[in-house]
Automatic annotation (TrEMBL):
PROSITE patterns: S4. Keywords: DNA-binding, RNA-binding. This is RNA-binding protein S4. Residues 102-127 are annotated as: Disordered. It comes from Streptomyces caatingaensis. GO terms for molecular function: DNA binding; ribosomal large subunit binding; single-stranded RNA binding. CDD domains: S4 (cd00165). Residues 8-72 form the RNA-binding S4 domain. Coiled coil: none annotated. Belongs to the HSP15 family.
Amino acid sequence: MVEDESPVRVDSWIWSVRLTKTRSLAAAACRAGHVRVNGERAKPAQTLRPGDEVRLFHAGRERVVVVSRLVRKRVGAPVAAECFVDNSPPVPPREVAAAVGVRDRGAGRPTKRDRREIERLRGVSGV
């Protein structure tokens, strides 16, 4: 389970410690530039060592973790928590997120009055 000698791919490690749900999502995040290892953009096959800092932007937030143990296979949550030190910024509370206006499904296009109200809520001034 724990492999300290052999190198581990960054996409495999991200998936193994449960930062992403699937390995393909981890590889896609690497290819899209959402994964950085020690400040440098990481390709999926890049190898990790203990002490490396991994920054992952996933699911709308940034995770900053420092590798403490290398694992090759997916492990349970208690073991995964021991494999890294989480230095991520705290998750903002839901109240801080901007409120989005909700229109009824099938209500059609907004009228001129509706658009003006939407612009007023967004703080956008008309031209």
